[in-house]
Amino acid sequence: MARAIWSGSISFGLVSIPVELYSATEDHTVHFNQFQRGTTDRIRYKRVNERTGREVPYDKIVKGHETKSGEYVLIEPEELDEIAPGRSRTLDIEAFVDANEIDPVHFQKTYWLGPAKQDFARPYQLLAQAMKKTGRAGIAMFVMRGKQYLTAMTEDKGVLAVHTLFFADEIRAPKDVLDVTPPNRAPRGKELDMAISLVESMADDWRPKDYRDTYTEKINKLIKAKQKGRKVKPEAEPQESTDVVDLMDALQRSVEASRKRRKVS
């Protein structure tokens, strides 16, 4: 069984339910160590005192924040724990909102939330069913691993899911980051009709199992091939950008190709 990464209580109104938090996802990324080229010598990183050049053990390290004057304010780990809201052990629901109102740009990561013990399963299930019936998400704050999170709690097949969210001031506006912004005048006419036809011809149901991490698969294939002294055929270059002049032609050919693929499948 997986281990809980956080434990505490859901708190809403005068109700408190002991719960445990579990990661809902896992990372399949292939991780590499670093070596000096031409050797089998590992590259290591050490925590070194910049003045003495000596390595420093973890228990001797504290956090420091640089102020505008260039000075550092040193903070002990226990001082951060002491100021954590609810001492890092309460997930406080502040409001229940329409789940569809939350813009996807706010979502970070998803966790499963379960009752800490069987004794708390009934109030847990009661909350889950109430959220399912109302279509509401519980907006809550909590502290985990030295950081405060804004979260949206939702019901998912009888289980509570906690989605960490970006705060409003962490979201960038498109105009602040895009070098080229779309024109104010919306596209229309035959080009738009053709683009809509292409979208509709490629319409399908959402089936998550149809998609997999092919890049990681190719990395594993490359590693096995190098173990055996073989070479792997490189992927084809991506297609070139569509010229604006040829846009209608590209759209037309894309629609026809998509329809042919549908007939074959």
3D architecture notes:
- There is one protein chain.
- The chain is of the alpha+beta class and 265 residues long.
- The chain folds into 2 domains: 6-28 and 82-170, Ku70, Chain: A, Domain 2, CATH 2.40.290; 182-264, no CATH class.
- It has 6 helices and 9 strands; from the N terminus they run ββββαββαβββαααα.
- It has helices spanning 77-83, 121-134, 174-177, 190-201, 214-227, 247-264, and strands at 6-12, 15-23, 63-66, 72-75, 90-98, 107-115, 136-144, 147-156, 159-165.
- The chain has a 7-stranded mixed beta barrel with strand order 1-2-6-9-8-7-5. A two-stranded antiparallel sheet has the order 3-4.
- The longest helix has 18 residues, at 247-264.
- It is extended, with a radius of gyration of 26 Å.
Chart the SSEs and their pairings.
Layout: E1 6-12, E2 15-23, E3 63-66, E4 72-75, H1 77-83, E5 90-98, E6 107-115, H2 121-134, E7 136-144, E8 147-156, E9 159-165, H3 174-177, H4 190-201, H5 214-227, H6 247-264
Parallel strand pairs: 1-5
Antiparallel strand pairs: 1-2, 2-6, 3-4, 5-7, 6-9, 7-8, 8-9
Helix pairs in contact: 4-6
Task: Briefly summarize what is shown.
The chain is built from six helices and nine strands. It is an alpha+beta fold.
CATH topology heading of the largest domain: Ku70, Chain: A, Domain 2
CATH architecture of the largest domain: Beta Barrel
Strand content: 25-35%
Compressed to H and E, one letter per element, the order equals: EEEEHEEHEEEHHHH
The overall pLDDT, averaged over residues, is 87
End-to-end distance = 40 Å
Strand order, main sheet: write it out: 1-2-6-9-8-7-5
Tertiary shape: extended
For the report, how would you describe the main beta sheet?
Answer: 7 strands, mixed, barrel
How many DSSP E strands?
Answer: 9
Number of helices: 6
Please tell me the total number of domains.
2
- Rg, rounded, reads 26 Å
